[in-house]
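[audit] Reproducing an earlier prediction to check determinism. Same input, same settings, fresh worker. If the C-alpha cells differ from the archived copy the diff job will pick it up downstream; this log only records the rerun itself.
[audit] input (294 residues):
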Amino acid sequence: MDTPSTVIFRALSSKGCGASGVSTDYLLKDEIEQTEPGQLVASDSDLRTVSMEEASSFLKMREYIAPRIALGVMLCILSPILIILLSGAVETGLINISESRAVGMGLVLLFAMAGCAVALFVSSGLRAKPYEYLEKENIDTLYGVDGMVRDRRERFQPVFSRQLIIGIVLCVISVMPLFIGMVFAEEDSFIHIVSVGILLAMVAIGVFLIVRVGIIWGGFSQLLEEGDYSRSSKEDTRRLGWINGCYWMLVTAAFLAWSFITNSWDRSWIIWPVAGVAYGAIYAIFKAVRQKSA
C-alpha cells in the first residue's frame, strides 16, 4: 500500500510542485512529525483549518509588522530624551532660554514621536486583524504546514538567539553610563542627565531587537500552537478575558482616584508596576489551580 507521502509526491509531480508552492520536503517532514510512535492524531470538526497559503501569508505579515511595532516601541522610549536634556541644560545654565520654552520644545518632539508610534501600532494592528483567530481559536493545519513552519523557524533560530541576547545585554548594561558619570563626573550634574539619555537610548535599541524577533518567533508558535499559544493557554486566556477587563479597570480607577484626591501624580505611577507584578502572580495562581484540578 502506498504511503501518504508517495501519494502526495505523485500528485505534486503530475501538477508541478512549483505551481502549488508546496515543497515535498515540508510534506515528508510533516508526515514524520505526525507519525511519531505514541502520538495520536485527532480530528475535530470545530477546529479552524489553516492552509499552506494562509500560513505563508500570516508569516509574511508578521515579518512585515515586526520592525514597525518594534520601531513604535523604540520611539516611545526615546521620546522623553530631548525634554530631559533641554531641562537639564537650562537648569545648569548651558543654554540661555526659559524653562517653559525648553519644556515646550521637548513636549513637541515627545508628542510627535508618540504620534508616529501610535500610527505604527494602529496600521500594524489593522494588518494583523484578519489573523486574530490564530491567537484565540484552536486550529488544525493542513498537511505540510507544520513542516514548513518548523523549517522556517529552524532557519530563523540563529537570528532570534543572536538578537535576543544582544537586546537583553543592552538593557542590562544600559545603567553603566550613569554609574560612569557618577564616578568620573561627580560634580557635573549635566553629565548625569546626559547619562540618563544614553541609558534610554540603549534600552530603546535593546527593546527594538527583542520585540522584533519576538513577534516573528511568536508567529511560528501561533501556527504550531506551542508555548503561550498552546490550546490550554488559549483556554486560560478565554476564561480570564472578563477578569482582565475588570482588573485593569479597577487599577485605572484606583490610579485616578489616588492621583486626583491626593494630587500625588509624582508618586501614583507606582501603582502600574505593582499592578503588573500582581497580575502575573494572579495568572500563575490561576494556572496552578487549573492544572491541579485537571
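[audit] rerun output stored. Observation attached for the diff report: The first strand starts at residue 48 and ends at 50.
[audit] end
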